[in-house]
Amino acid sequence: MAIIETEAALHEAHRDNHTHRDVNGGWLRPAVFGAMDGLVSNLALMTGVAGGSVSQHTIVITGLAGLAAGAFSMAAGEYTSVASQRELVEAELDIERRELRKHPQDEEAELAALYVARGVEPELARQVARQLSSDPEQALEIHAREELGIDPGDLPSPLVAAVSSFGSFALGALLPVLPFLLGATALWPAVLLALAGLFACGAVVAKVTARTWWFSGLRQLALGGAAAGVTYALGSLFGTAVG
pLDDT tens across 71-110, in order? Predict the structure, then answer.
């Protein structure tokens, strides 16, 4: 009796405490990485131009142009990528749907074989496959999950992907420009704000990784700072050479 009670207590504790991170990243991963991309690319672009000893006006115009160009490029690329992926998936689903309609018994046997390969006893696998195949839409969903690794009811939206990429990139790219728009006359406030944003993005990324927030933040800070430093040096070199 004591053993049963102990096992019940352990089961209850396991159920209450056994949680996992969102390994797919959900909305957080693309949003944070889009903002991070905007931060790094626009910071590097602006420091590269500043290294060429240009006017403040030129730096601001460069930053705004980089924001617009990068955001539209990200949105267009994300839309095309997700739309192409979705069209490919839908084409494969159409093939599977036709096979289920033309050869239902073969598809049922194929599904049973998949379960047998995973360790289910043959008779039980056939029973499960027969029950799942009784509903055509459910059968399509099961075959798509098992054979293609996709969920037909949860396909990504190209428009949502494009809008989210545009917004997150624009938000990140705005940070290095913001101090100038608020009246700054030197580059260092823009660099400090952008580096702070990079650290914050890196810390947020830790929510979808196994790293600590400070490690992830410092790593992104170092990478973004290195990109800005290298482009500033190249801008100085090119500015001297051209001048």
Answer: 999 999 989 998 998 999 899 889 888 988 899 899 889 8
Give the Cα separation of 82 and 59 in Å (integer): 34
Whether the Cβ atoms of residue 111 and residue 100 lie closer than 8 Å to each other = no
- Distant-in-sequence, close-in-space partners of 67: CB < 8 Å, separation ≥ 6: 38, 42, 170, 173, 174, 177
Per-residue pLDDT for 215 more than 60? yes
Size of the chain, expressed as the number of residues it contains? 243
CA distances from 147 to 56, 83, 151 (A): 57, 21, 11
Is residue 169 within 8 Å of 34, Cβ to Cβ? yes
Please spell the DSSP secondary structure of 37-97, one letter per residue.
HHHHHHHHHHHHHHTTT--HHHHHHHHHHHHHHHHHHHHHHHHHHHHHHHHHHHHHHHHHH
Q: How far apart are CA 122 and CA 188, in angstroms?
A: 69
Distance of alpha carbon 58 from alpha carbon 66, whole angstroms: 12
Q: Which of 4, 30, 10, 25 is nearest to 160 (CA)?
A: 30
Mean pLDDT of the chain: 85
Is the pTM above the cut of 0.85?
Answer: no
CA distance 208 to 24: 8
Question: 11-24 b/e with 16+ CB inside 10 Å = b?
Answer: eeeeeeeeeeeeee
Tens digit of pLDDT for each residue in 184-194? 989 999 999 99
Closest CA to 188 of 81, 59, 100, 72: 59
